[in-house]
Recover the amino acids of this structure.
């Protein structure tokens, strides 16, 4: 008695254990978009045509710090000022206090950015001490 369920995709077909050659496996890994795809090529600066000393590799730490600075500048200074200007020009609306966007979810944004910037500042200091950079 054969049990086949063509509707249920969780039941494998009867020939799922067939033998295939190594070239078929490599070809299948690189061309299919299904559960049999085992490796995903990770883009590197060299494969994307970037030089080895591109600004992405050398300047990403200061960029992260400046990005964090501007996000905090908006969230704690620009946003409240814009909120007050909006509600002072629209007296018919009910006043809503500005809530900093980055403090939602327990301030996880600030914790993660503090970890990222802190760890890499420490790493940069060690690189300078060792004369790597």
């Amino acid at each position: 008695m054969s049990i086949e369920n063509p509707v249920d995709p969780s039941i494998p077909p009867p020939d799922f254990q067939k033998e295939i050659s190594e070239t078929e496996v490599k070809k299948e890994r690189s061309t299919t978009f299904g559960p049999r795809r085992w490796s995903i090529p990770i883009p590197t600066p060299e494969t994307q045509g970037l030089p080895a000393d591109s600004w992405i590799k050398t300047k990403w730490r200061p960029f992260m710090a400046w990005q964090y600075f501007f996000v905090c500048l908006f969230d704690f200074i620009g946003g409240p000022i814009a909120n007050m200007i909006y509600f002072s020009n629209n007296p018919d609306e009910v006043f809503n206090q500005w809530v900093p966007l980055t403090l939602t979810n327990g301030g996880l944004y600030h914790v993660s950015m503090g970890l990222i910037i802190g760890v890499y500042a420490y790493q940069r200091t060690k690189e300078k001490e060792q004369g790597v950079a």
